[in-house]
Design a protein that fits this description.
Polyamine Oxidase, Chain A, domain 2, globular, oxidoreductase activity, Guanine Nucleotide Dissociation Inhibitor, domain 1, binds dihydroflavine-adenine dinucleotide, 3 domains, alpha/beta, FAD/NAD(P)-binding domain, 16 helices
């Protein structure tokens, strides 16, 4: 067992932990980053699958994500736009397919009116929410007691309007059914992206991608940190007291003045603490859980949908694949579609054999794009729920009532232990931008406390 001493030990080499480590080193502190996996990046993972470069985890950058954009510039990374020329596809509850442009789906006039009304109402509520302190809203408790599904029912009797608006937060963001999280949690999700309108606008929220893949961010940060990043080192035990910490992984023991747990909050309890964490932390970590989504890539000889005048963007809360996009890789002449199967739909297809799951998912893509979608060259399902060191996707959110009750304590340090992760962010919550933002803030808190 190797034993090293540093000012700060960082547990987790995702975007958040590596950002904190980078800032601390810049400020003259010594660090060791212990990473459980055999690679850095956590939920950022760009890989070659059967000859196609695919983003298995996070990939999109939106215009307001200035913390991420600053990091991209610092690392010398460039971006390119998502392909979006042409018409989008919408499929209604009756299975009828129609084409549209802009953000509002082609629905009956009354449904459209109800959807616009809901978007306006949500935008107004979101404008009152501070994403860093949603629990401070005067109605926080009330909004945290009602599920987002039930809240939508109190606003409109139009089922299709509710299904569509619900989808933007439920299937598309928190990747949990709308009855499984509160209206306050939904408002935090929208506030973290600036407004609910921004979430509805795919051209905003899914604007750009990074040349070479978004995993370049953690890879280049780790490269700069050099020998201070240790992979294959799951931290099993963290001893802590007023004079510092000792982190014990499978091969290394690090003693340090501070520790940063830069892991998804659902994994904090995987580490043994000596002495145990306080009651408050024991409780609050039990009220967070990961969503579940399958990100499916299908690569074709050509982007055939473009010839049909389609952008590749498709939505339907009634389809197995509730949203899909043109995800063709920069410089690759082939065409790639990416589709998402979330929450209970993911449960359903994980219950059947892999071959049948593939058939069902491709059949859903074919409903949007036609028969050609049935025969990709390359097909890949990202399965983050099976990953020991993530356990779901995209991120963690509170159960009903949890955000108002525990939110303020989520990032409160415990003695020398600090917490850092995208799942604890206000602005950029559940996104790489939030991971980086919280990483900067955690490093600043340690520099102020030393
Ligand atoms: P992250 O989970 O990345 O890092 C934590 C690290 O800790 C991991 O490397 C893990 O192995 C390690 N670890 C855990 N326990 C440990 C232990 N005991 N000891 C040592 N190491 C330990 N975001 C976005 O901005 N745009 C997008 O398009 C998407 N899309 C998207 C798709 C999919 C499929 C996923 C899964 C996620 C996204 N996201 C996204 C979300 C984004 O990827 C995510 O918010 C950040 O990458 C999280 O970074 P963190 O560093 O906070 O955690």
């Amino acid at each position: 067992m190797e034993h090293i001493e540093r000012d700060v030990v960082i547990i987790g080499a995702g975007a958040s932990g590596l950002t904190a480590a980078t800032d601390l080193v810049k400020a003259g502190l010594s660090v060791a980053v212990l990473e459980a996996r055999d690679r850095v990046g956590g939920r950022l993972w760009t890989n070659d699958i059967d000859g196609a470069t695919l983003e298995i985890g996070g990939q999109w950058v939106s215009p307001d994500q200035d913390a991420l954009k600053e990091t991209l510039a610092d690392l010398g990374l460039s971006t390119y736009s998502r392909y979006r020329a042409g018409q989008n596809v919408y499929i209604n509850a009756a299975g009828e397919r129609s084409l549209f442009e802009g953000e509002i789906f082609p629905v009956p006039a009354r449904t459209e009116q109800e959807m616009v009304g809901l978007i306006d109402k949500l935008d107004a509520l979101v404008a009152e929410i501070d994403p860093d302190r949603p629990w401070a809203h005067p109605l926080a408790r009330e909004l945290d007691e009602i599920s987002f599904a039930r809240w939508l029912e109190t606003q409109t009797d139009d089922q299709e309007a509710r299904d569509n608006i619900g989808m933007f937060i439920a299937g598309a963001m928190l990747t949990k059914p709308a009855h499984a999280f509160s209206a306050l949690q939904a408002l935090l999700m929208a506030a973290s992206a600036g407004s609910f309108s921004n979430l509805v606008d795919a051209d905003f929220i899914l604007d750009e991608r990074v040349v070479g893949g978004l995993q370049q961010v953690p890879l280049l940060m780790a490269e700069r940190l050099g020998g201070d990043v240790f992979t294959n080192q799951p931290v099993r035990t963290l001893r802590w007291g007023t004079d510092g910490v000792t982190a014990i992984s499978d091969g290394i023991t690090v003693t340090a003045r501070f520790a940063i747990l830069a892991v998804p909050p659902v994994l904090i309890s995987r580490v043994s603490y000596e002495p145990p964490l306080p009651r408050r932390q024991h409780q609050l970590h039990q009220h967070l859980s990961m969503g579940l989504v399958i990100k499916v890539h299908a690569v074709y000889d050509t982007p055939f949908w473009r010839e049909d005048g389609l952008s590749g963007t498709a939505f339907s809360p009634y389809q197995l694949v509730h949203e899909a996009y043109d995800n063709s890789y920069h410089g690759d002449p082939r065409g790639t579609l990416v589709g998402f199967v979330a929450d209970e739909n993911a449960d359903g297809v994980f219950a059947v054999p892999a071959e049948e799951r593939r058939e069902r998912i491709l059949a859903s893509l074919a409903t949007y794009y036609g028969e050609k979608a049935l025969t990709p060259q390359v097909y890949y399902e990202s399965d983050w729920g099976s990953e020991e060191w993530t356990r779901g996707a995209y991120a963690a959110s509170f159960d009903m009532g949890g955000l108002a009750r525990y939110g303020a304590d989520l990032r409160a340090p415990v003695g020398p232990i600090h917490f850092s992760c995208s799942d604890m962010a206000g602005k950029g919550y559940q996104h790489v931008d939030g991971a980086i933002r919280v990483g900067h803030e955690t490093a600043a808190a340690i520099l102020a406390a030393r």
